[in-house]
Structures are given as structure tokens and as C-alpha cells.
Amino acid sequence: MVRTDVGVAVGADGRIHSVAADAELRRTHPDAELVDCARGVLTPGFVDSHTHAIFGRARYEEQEMRAAGVGYLEIAKRGGGIHSSVRDLRERSEEDLVALAAERLRRLAAHGTTTIEVKSGYGLSLESELRTLRVIRRLATELPVRLVPTFLGAHEVPLEYRQAPRTRTEYLDLVIHEMLPAIASEGLARFCDIFCEPGVYTTEESRRLLTAARAHGLALKLHADELENGAAAELAAELGATSADHLAAISEVGIAALAQSGTVATLLPGTMLFLGRPRQAPARALLEAGCAIALASDFNPGTSPTVNFPLVLTLGVSQLRLSVAEAFVAATVNGAAAVGMAAELGQLAPGYLADIALFDVADHREIPYWYGDRRCQRTWVGGRAAHTP
Ligand code: NIG
Ligand code: FE
């Protein structure tokens, strides 16, 4: 819903008290500190429900390789892709990773994002996955942005488990029997995710891991049907996952399964754009079937190095054929649902967390329209200034 000529009253508890006409707010909150938004547009801060923001070096060389015809999974088979980020991250200290990620998360926040789900998944060993999650925990206290930690120890099968005598099953056992209990006992993650994709993890392996994760009290997410169909969306629905993400290769059966579940369909159009793939997720078919759609950046060094959430909105409208209203709902209300926080996040409404973004535009439709620009002027998280000019 779009409202004009209103302001937002925020309480000392960091929540929204009311959204009302200026004069009324001045009357009901006579002592409030005033912030003049100069007739810009206020939105709920974006909820970016899918990022891989903890990594070392950028992987710009792979962009050119793909342009020359080498596919994403082929690069991984040659030891590049996720493996190259794993080699790199394992060498880095916690301090180094905190510094790199803080800078990148600030860039995401500068575009209007106030909540960021952050996955591990470039460690792929007990020690380096724990280090990654501790980095996220530290950043959550140091940065003025909400972070939601996700354990993605099953992002790939690490290279050292691909040659005899070691096996991929041994790695999955390590994830299930050592990593999960350690993470759960330290309370380091809210979600467990897996790259369920032909050539990466099978649906059987995914079911095994996610069932164990659920028993440890973690909520579930899947990288599902990203590049090729593997009935991963069906598995997400079956397991009651909070979200099934990517879905560019989802089938009709998968769409029907998601529509009958409470699982959010999280679409990441920046990834398909950056990979140069012709097929985007079937957003309209998902909506027509009755699915809830979230949009997210998938910020990561391999397939989506964008920090620009408004650009994701642009792609939502121009590539996924969403209306602007559908794109905003996907970036806020449904993003909040995709991190399990829909009851208190993603809306400018009384009782909701005061996570707000101010844009230097006269009409909200300009936010996806000026594509690639940065119109976000300020953000607040829990009523406190977060991004400032
Ligand atoms: O969401 N698909 C798996 N994970 C990421 C890419 C990770 C990488 O290439 O480093 C994704 O696309
Ligand atoms: Fe991803």
C-alpha cells in the first residue's frame, strides 16, 4: 500500500508506533525528535534473505571464462568456483574476514538493505565453517544492520573428499555429526541450507542433512533447482523448509508442491543475469499458483557480486515480470517471511521493527526505474540511524 503525506513515529523500543499525517504525529508525539525526509519515499528496509557475504577475494576471472563458453559447473569441476573461494577463505584469519565482510555489508546497507541473511559455506571444514559463523556473529554486534546466520556446510563437496580413500558420504557425516552439533550448541546459526542440485548434492543427501538440522532446532533453506531440475523444490515443500531459493529450473510439479506448502519461493534474478543464462525463474507461474515470492541478491563472489538491492527490484520487474508492488512485497514482507520474521519485520506498521529506508525519489516506482543508481539516502534499524549520507 502506498501512502502519501504521512510520517512514521518510532518509539524508544525501536518499533513503529504509528504511521499518520504529519500534523497528527506532531500532536500525538510533541516531544519527538523530528527527521525531515524532504518529501522522499520511505519504505520498509529491504530484507535480503539470501547472501554469501563472507568470502575472501573476488572471482572476476570467472566472468570472462563464462563469456568464453566455460559453464559454471565446468569451472567448479576444474577446481575453480566455490572451491577457489574455499582455498582462499581457509587461509584467512577471523580479523581479515571481519574486515572484508564489514566493508561489503556496509555497501549492501547503503542501498537500503537493513536485514541480511548471511551464509557460511566457503570453509567446508569444521574449523573454517565455525570461524565463518563466528565472523557473522561478531559482525551482527558490530554493524548497524540485522544479520541472520545460516549454516551452509553443504555448499559443495570439498576437493579432499572426492578422492579415495575419502568419500562424499564421509564429508556429509562430518557435517551432520560434528559441524551441526557444534553449531547448534554455540547457537551460531538460525538456518541450515544445502546446494541441492544435480552434480552437487542429491535430494537424498539433502533430505538426510536437513532432517538432522531440523532435529538440532535449525530452520531449513535449500538452493533448489538453480541450474538444472532435480526436484529440490518438491523436497523443500516436503520438509516444510522456510524457503526454496533460485528455482530457475523448477518444474510444474515443483511449482504445485511449493504452492501447497508454506515455503517461500526466493528468486535471485541477479544470479541468472550475471551468469548470462537465458532462463529466469518462472515468477508469474509461481504467483499464479499461489506461492509467496521473495526477492534477494544472492550476493556472492561467483554468481552475483551485486550489493544493489534496488537493482534486484529492477530485475524483478523487467525480467521476472513482477508489478512494482509485487517486487516491493517480495523485497520486504516476503523477505521477512523467508528469514522467519514476518510477524515483526518488513512492514511500516504499528508494532513492527522500525527498519526503514529513505529514498531520494518522488514516487516509489522510481526505485526500480533508475536502474543501477543509488537513491537510498538513509536507513534506520530498530529506529537507530544505520546508513547515513
Ligand atoms: O547461490 N549456488 C551455489 N551458491 C552460490 C554461488 C556460490 C559461488 O559460486 O561462490 C549461488 O549461486
Ligand atoms: Fe546462493
Bound molecules: N-(iminomethyl)-L-glutamic acid, fe (iii) ion
Number of strands: 14
Taken as a percent bin, the fraction of beta residues is 15-25%
Gross morphology is globular
Count of helical stretches = 16
Uncertain parts: none
**Overall pLDDT metric:** 97
What is the radius of gyration computed over CA atoms, rounded to a whole number of angstroms? 21 Å
**SSE ordering:** EEHEEHHHHEHEHEHEHEHEHHEHHHEHEE
Structure classification:
alpha/beta
Q: What's the helical proportion of residues? A: 25-40%
What's the end-to-end separation, in Å? 27 Å
Largest sheet: 8 strands, parallel
Spatial strand order of the main sheet? 4-5-6-7-8-9-10-11
What does this structure look like?
This protein has 389 residues and is of the alpha/beta class. The protein has helices at 22-28, 61-67, 72-77, 82-90, 94-109, 126-142, 168-186, 203-215, 232-239, 252-259, 269-275, 283-289, 309-318, 324-331, 333-338, 366-369, and strands at 6-10, 16-21, 41-44, 46-48, 113-119, 146-154, 191-196, 219-224, 243-246, 264-267, 293-295, 356-359, 376-381, 384-385. The radius of gyration is 21 Å and the shape is globular. The site of N-(iminomethyl)-L-glutamic acid has 13 residues, from helix 4.
SSE topology:
Blueprint: E1 6-10, E2 16-21, H1 22-28, E3 41-44, E4 46-48, H2 61-67, H3 72-77, H4 82-90, H5 94-109, E5 113-119, H6 126-142, E6 146-154, H7 168-186, E7 191-196, H8 203-215, E8 219-224, H9 232-239, E9 243-246, H10 252-259, E10 264-267, H11 269-275, H12 283-289, E11 293-295, H13 309-318, H14 324-331, H15 333-338, E12 356-359, H16 366-369, E13 376-381, E14 384-385
Parallel strand pairs: 4-5, 5-6, 6-7, 7-8, 8-9, 9-10, 10-11
Antiparallel strand pairs: 1-2, 3-12, 12-13, 13-14
The chain binds N-(iminomethyl)-L-glutamic acid and fe (iii) ion.
